[in-house]
Amino acid sequence: xAKSDFPYLHGFSKTEQDRLRRQAxxxxxxxxxxxxxxxxxxxxxxxxxxxxxxxxxLRRYPDIHVTGIDINDAQIDEAKRYLPTLPFGENRHKIQKxxxxxxxxxSNQFDGAFLCWVLEHVPDPARVLSxxxxxxxxxxxIVVNEVMNHTxxxxxxxxxxxxxxxxxxxxxxxxxxxxFIGAKLGNLLTQVGFRQVKTEIVNLHLDNRNPEKRxxxxxxxxxxxxxxxDALIEAQYIDEETLEKAMEELGAVRKDPNAVFxxxxxxxxxxxxxx
Length: 275
Prior knowledge:
The chain has nine helices and eight strands. The protein is of the alpha/beta class and 275 residues long. It has a single domain (14-271), classed as 3-Layer(aba) Sandwich (Rossmann fold). Strands 1, 2, 3, 4, 5, 6, 7 and 8 form an eight-stranded mixed beta sheet that branches. The protein starts with 13 loop residues before the first helix and ends with a strand.
C-alpha cells in the first residue's frame, strides 16, 4: 500500500483525549529528565494535541510562554478548553491551528522548541524540522522525543501481541508515518542545519526487580494497543480474534511473576546558529 494521508490511528474521541493526558503524565519523568528550558521565554510546541505536554511544560518552567500548534480541530478545541482551567496556565500559552510543514510564523521568533511523539505521524519530518529551525533564534535549542518501535520486547512470548504490535507499525508506515523514526533523528536534525546534535537512547527495562512499575507499564501498553483497535480492524490489519487473543496474552503477562518488558525511545537535542 502506498503512503497516503490518513486519520490518526487512535482517533480523536474524548476517551482518547483523556488517554493522551494520562500518557503524558505516565512518561513525564522519562521524557523530561535532563531537559532544562528554564532560560527559555517563548517556546514553540509542535503537535501540542490536547495540551497534555503543554500542561507539564507550563508547570515545570514557570517563566515560560508556550505557543502550541496542531492540525486537528478536535485536539485544538480540547487544548483551548482544558489549559485555561490550570491555575498556573493563565496568560502563558497560545494554541493555534497550523501545518507544521508550513509554519505561519516569522523567522527568528522563538527561543526554544519541543516535539514529542509528533514526527512519527508526519509524511515529511525533515520539512517540519527545517521549518522549526527557521522560526528559532540563533542560540535556541530544540528537543525532540521519538519512538523506536523496533525495540519493543515482551516476555513471556505473546504471538498475538506481536501481530497487533506489527499491525500498529505497518498501519503507521503505510499511511505516511514512521514508527522507527527515533533512530534517524541525529541524521534528520543535522540534515536541516541544527548543530551540536546530541542523541540519547532512553531505556525502559522492567522485570522482577520492580514488579509494580512493570505491571503499570504493561497496563499502559495494553491501553495503548487497545486504543487503535477500531482503525486497525476497519482497515483489515487485524481481526477481532487476534485482538481478543492479544488482550488475553497481555492480561497473562501482567500477572506473570517472571514477566519482562523492554522499550526504548530517542531523545535528541540540537542548537541553531547563524549560517
